[in-house]
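quick q for whoever's on today - can somebody do inverse folding on this one?? i tried earlier but teh output was garbage lol. C-alpha cells:
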C-alpha cells in the first residue's frame, strides 16, 4: 500500500506522521505537478554539494558560496535546491554555471509543510478522514476549514468536524510546492544543457561568531600566552560539513557596533581595514551547536599585572570608604584583536584554573591593550575625606583626602590611584607627586609590598564655574 502524509489535529497543535492509505484510495504520483510545456523540474539536494565556503561576520550575517553538480536541460527548467539555511535572504541569491542559466523567477521557503498548508492545497478535493484512530476511514470532499473545525461533504451529508477532537486526515499526494525544510525554487532559462558545477551564493542570518581569549599567566618563570578563539553559533537549521571557514571582525547588521578602528594597512590579514581570519583546514558547523576554533596563540609583550582604584574627589562621604581594587592586565599588542571576552588562567602546573574575566575592546595591532579582570580580594583601598570647605564665589570647594592602600597578598603589586574632579581643579599639595594630571583627573602610582600598606594625602581646589 502507498504511504500517504497524515496530519493529526490535537489540542496542542498538529502532529505529522506517515499513514497507510485506505486500500480504496489510489494516490497520484508523489510530488507530481503540472508544469508549463517544455519546462522540466530538477531537484538538487545537500549531498550534491562538492564545495562550501562560509564567511562569518561578527553578529552576522554569513555569506555562503557553495558548488553543486547539477544537471539542467536545454531551454527552460524549474530548479529546486534543498539543504539551504532557514534564514536565507532570497534577495542576495546568485547562480553561476557553465549552463549560462538566467534566473527568471525565484522563491524561498524556510519550510512550509504543515497541516494548514496541506488543508489549503486540498480544499475542494477529496480526502480521507477519521475522528479517532480506531475508526474506519471515510471519504469526503474538503469544503472549508478554520482553526476550530473542518467542513467535509460525504455522500450522505455535510459534516462540520471539530479539530480539537483528534481528527486525522490522509491526503492523496504531497504537494510539490510544500517543503519539509528550507528550499529555493528557481525558474531558469538555460543556453546549455548537461551536468555542470553550479555555484550558488547567498547571505543568511543564524550564523554568527565572536572572539574569546585566554590569558595564561603561569606561576614561576614560564612566559605568558594569549590564545584567541572564534566561537561560532549555528542557528541556520542545516549542518555545514567540511566548509572552508573565514571570520571577519566587522558587522553587516543594520546598526553595526564599532568593533575595531579601521586602519589603512592592506595585508592578507585584513579586509578593507578589518581583521580577517581563515581556518587552515575545512571544518564542520553542525546545526544547533556552538563551535570553537583557535585563531592564534602569541606571547603578550611587556605584560603588566597591576591594580587600580578610582575615586570621586567631589564626593562628601560621612565615613571612610572601603573598596576593593580592580585587577588589570596591560600589554603591548602586536596582533589585531577583535572585541571579545577574555579569561585569566593562572596557577601552578597541573593546577591552572580561571581566576578572572573581562572584555578586550577592539584593538588594532600596535595599540596598547588594557583589560579589567574584576575586583581583587587581597588589595583594598580606604578613602577618607579629612577636610572640605566651600568656595561660594565659584560654587567650588577645597578638599583634603587621604587614600590608603593595603596589600594582603603574597606578591608585591603596583596600584594606580585615579582621582576624578568635577570641574577645573588645581593640586595644592600632595605627599606623592602624580604621574598624570591632565583633563579632569590625576593619577598616582604606588608600589605596595606584601602585607604592607601605603598612604597618600592630597589637597585640591575645584572650581565648578557656571
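ok took a stab at it. sequence:
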Amino acid at each position: 500500500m502507498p504511504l500517504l502524509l497524515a496530519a493529526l489535529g490535537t489540542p496542542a497543535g498538529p502532529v505529522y506522521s506517515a499513514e497507510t492509505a485506505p486500500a480504496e484510495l489510489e494516490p497520484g504520483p508523489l510530488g507530481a505537478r503540472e508544469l508549463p510545456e517544455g519546462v522540466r523540474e530538477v531537484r538538487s539536494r545537500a549531498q550534491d554539494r562538492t564545495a562550501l565556503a562560509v564567511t562569518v561576520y561578527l553578529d552576522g550575517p554569513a555569506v555562503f558560496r557553495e558548488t553543486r553538480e547539477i544537471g539542467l536541460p536545454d531551454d527552460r527548467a524549474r530548479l529546486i535546491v534543498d539543504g539551504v539555511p532557514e534564514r536565507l535572504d532570497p534577495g542576495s541569491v546568485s547562480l553561476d554555471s557553465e549552463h549560462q542559466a538566467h534566473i527568471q523567477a525565484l522563491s524561498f521557503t524556510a519550510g512550509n509543510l504543515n497541516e494548514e498548508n496541506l488543508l489549503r492545497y486540498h480544499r475542494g478535493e477529496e480526502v480521507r478522514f477519521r475522528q479517532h484512530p480506531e475508526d474506519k476511514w471515510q471519504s469526503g470532499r474538503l469544503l472549508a476549514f478554520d482553526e476550530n473545525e473542518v467542513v467535509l461533504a460525504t455522500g450522505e451529508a455535510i459534516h462540520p468536524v471539530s479539530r480539537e477532537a483528534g481528527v486525522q486526515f490522509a491526503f492523496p499526494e504531497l504537494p510539490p510546492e510544500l517543503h519539509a525544510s528550507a528550499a529555493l525554487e528557481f525558474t531558469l532559462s538555460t543556453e546549455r544543457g548537461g551536468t555542470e558545477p553550479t555555484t550558488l551564493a547567498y547571505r543568511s542570518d543564524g550564523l554568527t561568531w565572536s572572539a574569546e581569549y585566554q590569558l595564561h599567566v603561569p606561576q614561576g618563570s614560564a612566559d605568558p600566552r594569549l590564545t584567541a578563539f572564534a566561537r561560532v553559533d549555528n542557528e541556520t537549521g542545516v549542518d555545514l560539513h567540511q566548509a572552508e571557514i573565514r571570520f571577519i571582525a566587522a558587522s553587516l547588521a543594520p546598526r553595526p557596533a564599532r568593533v575595531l578602528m579601521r586602519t589603512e594597512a592592506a595585508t592578507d590579514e585584513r579586509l578593507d581595514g578589518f581583521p580577517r581570519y581563515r581556518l587552515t583546514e575545512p571544518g564542520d558547523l553542525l546545526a544547533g551547536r556552538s563551535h570553537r576554533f583557535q585563531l592564534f596563540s602569541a606571547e603578550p609583550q611587556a605584560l603588566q599585572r597591576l591594580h587600580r582604584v578610582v575615586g570621586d574627589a567631589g564626593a562628601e562621604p560621612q565615613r571612610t570608604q572601603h573598596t576593593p581594587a580592580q585587577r588589570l592586565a596591560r600589554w603591548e599588542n602586536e596582533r589585531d584583536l577583535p572585541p571579545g571576552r577574555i579569561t585569566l588562567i593562572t596557577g601552578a602546573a597541573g593546577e591552572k584554573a580561571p581566576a578572572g574575566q573581562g572584555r578586550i575592546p577592539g584593538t588594532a595591532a600596535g595599540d596598547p591593550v588594557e583589560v579589567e579582570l574584576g575586583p581583587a580580594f587581597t588589595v583594598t583601598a580606604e578613602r577618607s575625606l579629612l577636610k572640605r570647605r566651600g568656595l561660594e564665589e565659584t560654587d567650588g570647594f577645597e578638599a583634603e583626602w587621604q587614600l590608603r592602600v593595603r596589600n594582603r597578598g603574597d606578591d608585591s603589586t603596583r596600584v594606580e590611584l585615579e582621582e576624578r574632579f568635577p570641574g577645573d581643579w588645581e593640586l595644592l599639595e600632595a605627599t606623592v607627586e602624580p604621574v598624570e594630571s591632565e583633563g579632569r583627573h590625576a593619577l598616582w602610582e604606588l608600589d605596595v609590598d606584601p602585607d604592607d600598606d601605603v598612604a597618600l594625602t592630597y589637597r585640591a581646589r575645584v572650581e565648578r564655574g557656571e
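fwiw The two ends are 91 Å apart (CA to CA). also The first strand starts at residue 3 and ends at 8. so keep that in mind when u check it
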